[in-house]
UniProtKB/TrEMBL annotation, chains A, B, C, D:
Belongs to the threonine aldolase family. It comes from Raoultibacter massiliensis. Its cofactor is pyridoxal 5'-phosphate. This is Beta-eliminating lyase-related protein. InterPro entries: ArAA_b-elim_lyase/Thr_aldolase (IPR001597), PyrdxlP-dep_Trfase (IPR015424), PyrdxlP-dep_Trfase_major (IPR015421), PyrdxlP-dep_Trfase_small (IPR015422). GO terms for molecular function: lyase activity. Residues 5-295 form the Aromatic amino acid beta-eliminating lyase/threonine aldolase domain. The keyword Lyase applies.
Length: 341, 341, 341, 341
């Protein structure tokens, strides 16, 4: 049986486990005040070309989104997001539970564009009743998106410009950031993201770590009080060094990008095979997520030998499914899957 | 200068002011525990044909919506509402501030239909990831809607049926309820509403009172703890008798419906005149709100002699405006407005 | 039967009702944008000697406390208050419902002192773990307190100094402010309060109005976004002029202080009679609230002819009860009560 | 340099790391739906003698407390806790951020007793204004407490009885549960806790795991919707098996109790040596936390060779410090510390 359901099915990159073994008996102070975290922060600042950045380590994506958004918004402000954005759909109301509205914008394959943000904000402030409404307070984008699409440098630049025009912090959810940076045709580097966003995070859970997300505030003043807010959100790990060790390992010897590149290579090999075999792609994704249209009979058949993600019913007879590769995907497993197609 | 901006521009029905004068020096206990509130509750229960109903008096619409929704929902549940619903648009995030998501459904002239609710709930529970999402927790409708449209008895019956199918309390925002009950062609009576909804409120602010909304829980068990929740939401008036006196007065001698009928009569007279004068109606409303398309030049001209509500720009040259009548609108003012058209 | 239960048993000062009658048919825009509110704001700014103040009108005390505190605090900050403070005890968790902790300080007859605040803050920042704790974010005091005591000018000055030392806004709950200003021996004037506090409110509900609290931000920058926050808290009255009319009336011809002085005169007459008759005062209050120790048998007897507030059981045989006078208390009723003693 | 600062300074028990290594390349579904979690749940149910229990795995203590309390309380209810309870002091307002008040009870060495709970509840419901106040909604205790003290079986029985009398769920914070079960003189077993509490958690972070807390609802109906609430609170780990593997390992071959016992043995050895050396104990603790009074000069001296926790200044010359042992403490390190005393 092959498994291509998601990119968080395995444990961690072996170098991480080795380091955890090696350091297991060391005694360190808690809550991210240890030397591993300090080194991981330094490596991330360097990789981002942003020496003034404030870096924090959290455990998972939903808690990271909720904590960052709570830090940036006043009570009457909302987060602008694609209507398909993770915070708008699959976080069980974590943003609203902190008292904030998600103001949705129609998506195009998971992405929003600068023009739509500009138009929404312009219309908002032109409304005579705008003081009775939730004010746009930040822009949230995910990169890659939930649809496996990516922003180009020029697209991100445009979004950043409009966000700054309306004084809205720009926040990028990078739960799968490595797969965006390494995506086929990507022209957006970590330093660009650091320059254009006010805060973003570098996903570890789906890219080589057991768990962990590294939050980068490129404007340090936005991070004021963030440590205590992490504590309040239950997002402060007692044994913080576990996060420091993981990110230090991922940001040593270019490992984060290398393993991300591997996932993309595997996905592109699979994608080519799917096209060759005559399958229709639902979305032309350059990332580790591939969305394929299957006849239902074929899907049932295939599901006996490989597990994959159900995406949506296309019509009565056909279904869109998702195959996800990851840093851990073995080429032999991709080959085995291709055999089955 | 004539004023048709909204239905909350004047004070209160004279009978209410007289009663306030007359009782001003009386000493009563606070927080709705007085005899006026008791009588008003009895009159409302009777008017609703629902002797077991629990009735509470609050001050304004937004606080009433937020308090009721907070009472009915668990933390991970949301309120289904039209995307044009007041709670989704013009309450400054009051629902989210209590921790709840508004789950929007596309509207048809401000209304949602049973089928859309059924489809949304069916799809929700069919989703493999539904436990990662905000669960539908109640159905919110406004009657009349923000677009001046009304639900028919059969429409409300269908919505009530689907709500019960999914065990969702049905909550009707009746900020303008009188104008819905008295609307041209309305076939929905107060007793129908009480039978089909689990909770609703009878708007006073826009229908004859200085302020005040009477909340009717037709299922008393849903009202458990509501008094304390009102206090927590800042919705418990110290001198509660002011609300009791107002609703007692409105529900004496059929006053609530009579004054609502007057507003409708005035609106229908205006509507007929608008049609006669060749204006295009944007929405064919049977209620006290009339939405008319005006050329911008005409609008500017008219606005020198009458004030009205700006609704939306239709295109570069034309605007939709709203004329609202109320219980207090004088026929001579409607005639004066018609003269100007 | 006489009633001395509380100071919110009657309606409003006759001049207010007359004005409401007189203006009833006027049409004004909503939400506090009318001319009555504008004039009331100007009168209040003048009475406070604070021309730059931002003034808002809300309906009741709990909603006012919750909205102001929500406006001033970040998510991880709390409100310092006496453990007997209204926000700590009798608001059904309204502060916590907005996500904020009330950090309590032991009281002395309802008051807190500068030294206790200084000590708490000094200890807090000296704690190695303070970043794991709720940070002091503002100081809340009530004047008069829930125990009918008042702050002197020097006490308030000291509290203001320590609040500024720790950069904590000082917020005074003035639900009974008139009775504090007019209290026997009071040396604290409105202009002092405006100078020493960052925000406070002038209670109307208990001092001559049907309802209403006038919030004064003496530092306008603290009021940023307050209008929308009022809307979110359900604290924005649609027919805002009702509040404007009431406060305009109260701040015309020194009415607010005059009627407060009357309540104090009545309370002092009662207090003298109580002492003469040999009753023990539980608290030596210079305000409209008088706390008296009664033998239980005497209390039961008295309660057949006069209603009063139950305060607390002193021991098995004696109870503390509260007699409250108000702007509306008639001298003949005080005389009748004295007769009964 | 020796380190006795806290019980979360090392990584995990070697058996856990081995198992993580061994299973690293396995592919499992996420969010706790894997076979490791299933087995860990079964082992915990068995250890608790509670086959019907619902078991969930979360990452850290603060998020666990906040999620459980949010699950159990209605909006107007609060959590009764010792004023020294972790939720009342060191969780940065996590409970209030979910909208709930912590209602504090004075502690005795970190503990509360049944009588105090009974008295508080009785007084509460006897208060004429109780509907204006936050209602007691659950009882929170920590075992061992923050002061290193433990409840006896009869004490817990009494608390459980009074909680049931007032229909309050009893929730035990077991962040250090192992050290309570294994404490010197403890007569409270896991099965007793399961029988007497409605929900509790078995701490992993401080007792052998890298991280993780196992929540046990002994009344399954209280767990309704808990999975989604975990997601909302950011407390649902994507790679849930990491928690399953850890708790399966800890609950195999009696490991959880055995390693806890080791920590206690080390603490008792240290305690005896402290007494022998003439030090004064601040608290007579039977657990892994020992609180000792040191002259400040001695403390400064000692701190050059050993790190420990600062607890509180006793007076100008003396300080209370905490030495904590853990499952990982080596006897040779305790001996080395004893040498230094």
């Amino acid at each position: 049986m092959q498994h291509f359901d998601s990119d968080y099915m395995e444990g961690a990159h072996p170098a991480i486990l080795e380091k955890l073994m090696e350091t297991n008996e060391e005694k360190t102070p808690g809550y991210g005040t240890d030397a591993y975290c300090a080194r991981a922060r330094a490596l991330i600042r360097e990789a981002c070309g942003c020496p003034e950045a404030e870096v924090f380590f959290l455990v998972g994506g939903t808690q990271t989104n909720a904590t960052i958004i709570d830090a940036l918004l006043r009570s009457t402000q909302g987060a602008l997001a694609a209507d398909t954005g993770h915070i708008a759909t699959h976080e069980a109301g974590a943003i609203e539970a902190s008292g904030h509205k998600v103001i949705t914008i129609p998506h195009t394959l998971g992405k929003i564009d600068a023009e739509a943000i500009d138009s929404l904000c312009t219309t908002f402030y032109a409304d005579a009743n705008y003081e009775h409404m939730v004010e746009p307070g930040l822009v949230y984008i995910s990169h890659p998106t939930e649809y496996g699409t990516i922003y180009s440098l020029s697209e991100l630049k445009a979004i950043s410009d409009v966000a700054r025009k309306f004084k809205l912090p720009l926040f990028m959810d990078g739960a799968r950031l490595g797969y965006g940076l390494a995506a086929e045709g990507a022209d957006l580097a970590l330093a660009d993201i650091a320059r254009l966003c006010d805060v973003f995070y570098i996903g570890g859970t789906k890219v080589g770590a057991l768990f962990g997300e590294a939050v980068v505030f490129t404007k340090p003043e936005l991070a004021k009080g963030f440590f205590t807010l992490m504590k309040q959100h239950g997002a402060l790990l007692a044994k913080g060094r576990l996060l420091g060790i993981q990110f230090e390992t991922l940001f040593t010897e270019n490992r984060y990008l290398d393993i991300s590149r591997h996932a993309i290579d595997m996905a592109m090999k699979l994608k080519a095979a799917l096209i060759d075999a005559g399958y229709a792609l639902h979305i032309d994704s350059p990332t580790n997520q591939q969305f394929v249209v299957l006849d239902n009979a074929r899907m049932d058949d295939l599901s006996k030998q490989v597990s994959f993600g159900f995406w949506e019913a296309l019509d009565a007879d056909r279904t869109v499914v998702r195959f996800a590769t990851s840093w851990a995907t073995r080429e032999e497993d991709v080959d085995a899957l291709i055999e089955l197609l």
